[in-house]
Every structure is written in C-alpha cells, then in structure tokens.
Description:
Blueprint: H1 13-24, H2 41-52, E1 60-63, E2 69-73, E3 83-88, H3 101-116, E4 125-130, H4 143-149, H5 154-159, H6 168-181, E5 185-186, E6 195-201, H7 206-210, E7 215-220, E8 222-231, H8 248-263, E9 271-273, E10 277-280, E11 290-299, H9 302-316, E12 324-333, E13 336-337, H10 340-353, E14 359-362, H11 368-371, E15 377-382, H12 398-417
Parallel strand pairs: 1-5, 3-4, 3-6, 6-15, 7-14
Antiparallel strand pairs: 1-2, 2-4, 7-13, 7-15, 8-11, 8-12, 9-11, 10-11
The protein binds glyoxylic acid and manganese (II) ion (2 copies).
Amino acid sequence: MRETLHLHQHLDGERFWADVEAQAAIGALETGGIRRLALDDADVAARLWLIDQAGPLGCTAFYDDLGNVFLRREGSEPELAPLLIGSHLDSQPNAGAYDGALGVVARLAVLRALHDAGAAHDRPVEVVAWTNEEGARFAPGASGSSWFAGTREREAIVAAEDDEGMPFGAALEHCLARLSASGAAHRPAPYRPHAFLELHIEQGPVLESLGCPVCVVTGIQGVTWYEVEVQGQANHAGTTPAAARQDAFMGAHRLIGALREAAETQDEALRFTIGKFRLWPDSVNTIADLARFTIDLRHPDPAVLDTLDKAFQRLAEEDWEGCRVTLGVSSRVAPVAFDAALLEALEASVASEWPEAPQIVSGAFHDAIHLARCCPTAMLFTPCRKGISHHPDEHIEKAEAVIATRALVRAVDRLLAS
Length: 418
Ligand code: GLV
Ligand code: MN
Ligand code: MN
C-alpha cells in the first residue's frame, strides 16, 4: 500500500459550498427548492455546468449514450479501471436542492482537492452524474446507472414515456445534442469501474436524531414499482343507477383499500405508497372508465416483497365494482448489501471524522443499487433536517456536509493508495 496523499487537508469547504449553491440555482423554484425533471432544460443545464468545471481542473468531460456525464482525472496508468464516484442531478417535480446534487458536488470537491494537492495517482478518477435517477418524469428511475451496470437494456429505457407522451428516447436525443455541442467527448460504451462510491443525503431521521454528520451505508432495501389499470365503463353521472355502474374510480378505491390491508399484514419496515393516481375521461359529470395508479413497495427482505407480490396479483384477479384490473410490474430491484472490503475502507474514513457514527441500511434507492451489481460499491450518508426530502423544505447544514465530504475525500485517498 502506498502512502495516502493527505487529501483531506486540501478540501476547500467554502469552494464546495459555493458549488452547492451554484447547482441549487439551476431550476430554482420561487417557492424554494428546485425542479429539474430528467432530461428537461434545467437538468441539461445542470450537466452542462458540470462539464464546464472540467477544463480548469485539468479533467476531460465525457458523455455516453444514456447522457451520463463523466469528468475524468487521468492517472499515471490510464489503462487501470477508474475509481468512479458520483450521483445524479435530476430532481423530483417539487424538490429540495440536495437530493443527488450534493453527491455530485462533493465528488467535484474530491477532484478539486486532487487538483489543489497536485496529486499523482496511478488509477484514473472519474466523477459521474447519472441520467434520470428519480424516475419522476420517466419511470422507472436510475436509467443511466442501470444501463451502465448492465441491469437494464437501452431499448426498454428509451421506450418509456412521460405524462405528455414524450418518449424518453426523444428527450434523450435533445440532451445528447446539447452535450455534444458543449465540446464534451462521446464515449458510447460502459466500462467496469474499479469501485463506485456515492455520498447522499440520508432522507430519513436517524443521523439528525444522533447529531451525527456522516455515516456508512451498508446496503439498500428492495423496491418494486407497479402500474395498475382499472377498466370500467363511462356513463352519465346523473342517470346511471348504482346497479348499472362500472365505476373505475370506485373499483380502484376499493382495490387500494384491499392492497393496503395486505401490506399491513407485514412488519413495520414495509413501505407502501401510491404516489400517482389519474382518472379518464376526467370530467365532473361522467363516471370514470379508466383509473391508473402506481404503487411503490419497499422492504429490506426480498421474501416479503415476493409474498406481497403474489397477494397483489391475486387481488387484481377479483371483481372490483364490475371493473377489470391489470397490475404490471414496471421495476423490480432486489435489496443489495454493499461490498465488505469497501465498507471497511469507508468505515475507517468515517471514524477519522466521527468515531461514534452508526451504520444504516438505505430506505431510498440510489444509483448505487445498480452499480453494486457490476463493481464493489458503497455509500455514505449525511443528515437532512427532520429527514425531509422530495420537498423544497429539504435542508442540510454546511458544516455537516463539509465533514461528510471530508470523509469521502479520505475514502478516495485510501482507495487510491491501496
Ligand atoms: C429515490 O429517489 C427513491 O425514491 O428512493
Ligand atoms: Mn437521490
Ligand atoms: Mn430522490
């Protein structure tokens, strides 16, 4: 093992925070927070901002066929697999400024520390911003990272449509054209990284309750996304008697009650969420003939998700107010446990900053859930106020974020030395 580079001494907390604020201004909402839906103008602008940082840091900017953006700092042995660090820049529709972006900016702080230290290292280091982690505009999420890791096919990803019928593929072409015009180089194929590290806000209450600024994340719970369609018959709201109705809303309403009851037979770690619900023809005095809704189902134990999957499929086969139900899986990602050796390295780096830090299993999914299938992967968390996230009230403290970023810098230093 080589000597470490003492990189943490070169972390510039003020510069890091200026980067956080610059990112938070892109797609900023007047009411606070940001809106950067995957591949929209603000999301592309956020990536172009990242590309602009490459030149002054002596890095090369690349983008790939899914619009993932990479900044590469060359090593003295360019053929070695890069150490990859990154997160995402897209957001939920009415989001906080730190979910994803903090991680990308913290990685940039690593590149700045390497640059300021004039550090020589054998292995290349790459910072990445993955495309469409959130899945809010195009479902499912983690598009860029899942394609890169080989867990999803490009054809299936680009076929997804947003609520206005815009295909992912068309939005991606527009994005790729702008990335190309920026001067970034095109690198079509994914590669197998030496390791992948992601720093993210916790999006839960544990770290804040312990007054702890950083911790190691040991894994991510599993998540299944469903798309449910309830097909009824449209008719006049005022004249159609109860017995003659096939009301898609009422069918969906009763079905949702039953799905929720099934979910409540499991332990309290289970998360069951219906975040989207739409009716057609969407008129005040017409019985709905179509209801569509989503289910986001999560648990750390894959057996629990399997049991509920069977229960949900059985419920879908029953009669709901005379309506027909189809229940399809749009994404199924198994729980993941991160790489033991990498966790040890992260644990040592975190202990140098905060010896009492706990270890956490992530309730949110992250790009790391896919990267873990193709290379050693692990994560760090830093707290956010009251655990609030996916909302403009999402808030982090600069001092805590700097400590967490310093732990990341220490981890990179350790990995480059090994
Ligand atoms: C990621 O945004 C998630 O929904 O867990
Ligand atoms: Mn995120
Ligand atoms: Mn998110």
